Amino acid sequence: MSDHPPPAPLVALVVGPHEAYAAGPGLRESWPLAEVASRVARMIGSIHPRWVVWSAENALRGVVAAGVDVPRSWDLAEAHRLLHGGWRATPGDVWAGCRGLRVDDVPVPRRGRQAGFDGDLFDLAERSVDELLTESGHLRADALEGWATGSERLGRLADLALTCQREQEGSLRARGGDGAERLIRTVWSESAAAVLCLELERDGLPVDRLAAEDLISAAAGPRPRDDADAARIRAQRDHAVLRHAPGRERADLRNPAQVRTLLQSVGVDVPHTRAWVLEPYRPTHALVDALLTWRKNERVATTYGYRWLDEHVGADDRLRGRWTACDGAAGRMTAQNGLHNLPAPLRPAIRAEPGYVFVRADLGQVEPRVLAVVSGDRAFAEATRSDDLYAPVAAKLGIERSVAKVAVLAAMYGQRSGAAGEALKDLERAYPVAMDLLDRAYADGVARRSLRTYGGRLIPFGIEPVPADPPRADGAGVPGSEPSGIRPDVDRGGSDAARGRFARNAIIQGSAAELFKAWAATVRHAVRPLGGQIVLCLHDELLVHVPQARAGEAQRAVQDALGRASHTWAGTDVVRFVADASVITRWSEAKD
DNA sequence: GATTTCACGTA
DNA sequence: CGTACGTGAAATCC
Question: Model-level pTM?
Fold first, then answer.
């Protein structure tokens, strides 16, 4: 492969409260805050650097806010999460990770301590105000905040960032083989995802406010004029249920215990009142039917109602929330303010701006395809050649497609009982390598052994792999030996079986999240020249907002991006990934 | 006031 | 057909 451009120069960017600092090859500059965005943009145009940042939040939020496209970064926080697992990734955590210091001892900012407790006593332990490192070698808690003033100090923080980058890249390379490049690419795409999160927060998701008001009104009633009006509307909603229970009109539908008693009064005896338990009673009990309808409406009224609209949809009709590039467990993206769990009935309200459309694209059967990559199962990979993976599996096993699907899902997600039982045995004979990967992940979870996703993310369980960890025959995971000092000390409670299921799920879900982010990062670059932007990421689905005239190009770009991202991520084209991409105006359209 | 439980939305 | 996460209301703990 000789088509790679020369590696981008690494330039550290540190943004302090009063000024910023950039340090790279032949470069040491202190910048006024007001000039950071323009200088970054200019440097991207000239030397195309990869920006080394303590976090995208620290160094790039202002740059992104100014509308600058930051194509390449090395996010020390995201790399730290990848290397060491978990979610905490302050500069102090990153430094501790690089130095093999215990994360338990990382200094915590004073405001993080118990409210009302005077922390000054403890801060004396940090001795001198000039020292960047504490006596125990940790980065001081306020290194990037109060302490980071003056070009001398910022320069030291920039140098430290470059040191951490070298250290992180070094430990990735130390794992050796073709796995190393893969881990480094994971850092690249995770870093890009962190920048994408800033863009998602900046731009928001376009909402048709009037449509949203209509949909909310249909579920929750008209917008209340005052508290008394709100109480009246609420009582009206409640009455639609309570009129089916004469004599018990005082019952509180928002209190599960009272609901259970209420249901008992009409002869429905259930251990709890969750929807799936009540669903069977729906046709025979009008009260249950009314209650379940009430629950849907109540969800909209409380969580996605007028308050939600007023607080999270801006004057520019964009829904905004905080985004994170990786969650605590397996590394999926997360979003707040309903961006990730907007009820389907409200989706018609997500509408492209006039003159724009959405390209909506979602990965098909992504988790079994990821399993084929992670396990290296040649036979299972063969099945991914098909648009519908379950069809060739069914053919190979000589069973119905529906049975094959249930069996594959059962193997991946845990249930080993029921109708899938017989087909599962066939599955293990047909795809022993893939099934073995799942079994070993389960066993790792039971034994509290940490594991790694395909892209190298540590899923910590407390017990790190010992240096003499046996190599995996399939090449998956490449478990590394963690410096013993920084053990994240994660205690995932629950039963053996619960930990086993968690581990089995995490290695698949987490690996799928990496492929998704690699895809998203590629799409982000590909649609920008078309005036397009990613406005929503939903685990296996992308929503791209693009001028109508460029819709076809964007649609093709999204497909091409998947081909390139999956080839690079998986290191092969043997496993095929597929996406369904359609051009729509409202999110509710083209929902398969 | 902070934490836990219940419930349910998305993938 | 499991797992993950975010949200809100009520109960519970301190």
Answer: 0.91
